Amino acid sequence: MSDVAAIYGVTAGRRDGYPGCWCDPTLARPRKLGALGLKVQQGVTFHGIALNVSTDLTHFGLIDACGLAGLEVTSLARELDWHDIDARGSTDLVHRAGLRFAEALQRRLREVADRAAVAA
Questions:
Q1: pLDDT of residue 64
Q2: CA–CA separation, 49 and 19 (whole Å)
Q3: Read out DSSP for 14-30?
Q4: Residues 76-83: what's their mean pLDDT?
Q5: Fewer CB within a 10 Å sphere, N or C end of the chain?
Q6: What region, left, alpha or beta, does residue 18 occupy, with left being phi > 0 and alpha being psi -120 to 50 degrees?
Q7: Is the pLDDT score of 48 beyond 90?
Q8: 23 counts as catalytic
């Protein structure tokens, strides 16, 4: 997720002790940009990916995202101050971000596989 954020000019990364991808993770008011969840239960793999691209962030005011009260959630659109995105533009932005995410994830998984092959 941080790789995709960087493509858009947004700096994001891990926040020690917290799941997800964060903007300004070391500052007093970090903002959660997204999360990747993986779980294996009885040999079955579950996963979920959430990268906020042009998300309506008002909905997050109704929940404690990730069970963390007071957590601030953000999106690429908010970080980049994109105010005039209509539904069609939002769909296109999400599609393009999804393609970039798939490419970045593939690249990262390939790097892990290459390191494992060298170590073996």
A1: 82
A2: 12
A3: EETTEEEEEESTTSSS-
A4: 90
A5: C
A6: beta
A7: no
A8: no
Looking at residue 67, the DSSP 8-state letter turns out to be: G
Distance from C-alpha of 109 to C-alpha of 38, rounded to nearest angstrom: 14
Whole-model pTM above 0.70?
A: yes
Distance of CA 109 to the CA centre of its chain: 16
Domain range 2-119, CATH class: alpha beta
Domain extents in the chain: 2-119
Of 81, 95, 67, the C-alpha closest to 4 is: 95
The tens digit of pLDDT for each residue in 21-47 reads 999 988 888 999 998 888 889 999 888
CA distance 56 to 46: 26
Find the farthest-apart pair of alpha carbons in the chain and give their distance in angstroms, rounded.
51
Residue 8's CB is within 10 A of a number of other CB atoms, namely 17
